[in-house]
């Protein structure tokens, strides 16, 4: 993990990356690692009509800024929500371009056991595009039928607080139960108890290249 200096986070939709590995992003930035964040949908066509189409684009920029991700390291696409399977080849081609330009040491993406149709596409095509790169699958418990806690990243209070602060930037999504600060902290506590740390995030090892 110490040798992974260029980290790539793949988020099917804005906020997925922060939910799955926001604490780790904060820790990596603190350690001086180069973190890139790619969201494949800003959900323009699925937002309530009273919200501006670029609402989530603005919110993800603020959320990732709070975590410490440079605006130049943030890439946003706008594939239609719940229709990623129709654009599978386009998404794969974008992933291949990203791999070629960034050459990441470590990739975070949804677990292969995620049941959300868009998350499945990013996980499956991510596995194809980054076939020579270490990949960790992050957990989104409300979408995971199963989740193997094979890797843990130890975190401190400031990392979890940054994650909570980042997610609070999503004003348009604040009604969602999984954005609740108590839930975020509780899950980090559960993972911490498993390894005897103050806080932690857990991941599935999809591929590990040594």
Structural account:
The structure is a single chain. The radius of gyration is 16 Å and the shape is globular. Strands 3-2-1-4-5-7-6 form a seven-stranded mixed sheet, with helices on both faces. Helix 1 packs across helix 5, helix 2 packs antiparallel against helix 5 and helix 3 packs across helix 4. The protein has a single domain, classed as 3-Layer(aba) Sandwich (Rossmann fold), CATH 3.40.50.10320. The protein has 210 residues and is an alpha/beta fold. Helix 1 links the parallel strand 1 and strand 2. It is built from six helices and seven strands; from the N terminus they run E-H-E-H-E-H-E-H-E-E-H-H-E. 39% of the residues lie in helices and 19% in strands.
Name its key features.
single chain; alpha/beta; Rossmann fold; seven-stranded mixed beta sheet; 7 strands
What are the SSEs and their pairings?
Elements: E1 6-11, H1 16-30, E2 34-39, H2 55-67, E3 74-76, H3 88-102, E4 106-110, H4 117-129, E5 134-138, E6 151-155, H5 157-167, H6 181-195, E7 199-207
Parallel strand pairs: 1-2, 1-4, 2-3, 4-5
Antiparallel strand pairs: 5-7, 6-7
Number of strands: 7
Main-sheet strand order equals: 3-2-1-4-5-7-6
CATH homologous superfamily identity: LmbE-like
Unreliable parts: none
Biggest sheet features = 7 strands, mixed
| Second rung of CATH, namely the architecture | 3-Layer(aba) Sandwich
Cα end-to-end separation = 10 Å
Structural domain tally: 1
CATH class: Alpha Beta
